[in-house]
Amino acid sequence: MSNKAAASLLTLDIERTGNVVVVRCHGHLVWGVTDILYSNVSRLIPDSKRIVLDLTDLSRMDSMGLGTLVRLFVSAKASGCKLELINLGDRIRQLLDSTNLLSVFSVIGEQDIRMR
Hints:
The chain is α/β, with parallel strands linked by helices and 116 residues long. The chain has one domain (3-112): Transcription Regulator spoIIAA, CATH 3.30.750.24. It has four helices and five strands, in the order αββαβαβαβ.
């Protein structure tokens, strides 16, 4: 997949305030584009206490996307950084629940994003 095609499937908006980062994901987290999320977020882990992945506009995720979330979770935890998920759509929530990963991640409500 070309870089241009990959970028059209998944885009990220990153907002940092101090040690807290909010990453808003848009599009599809699927095979061929998971490196976009992993490379951008893994660079943030060493300098962050908390990373919130806002999945409001994430309309699709496959097993590669799940694996990427798990890789990021493990990397963050090893570095003392907290990785949280917010605004899960029904399909994403069902996927995480059916794979027993929903209980692994910290899932918060939108009102709980505090840039502290």
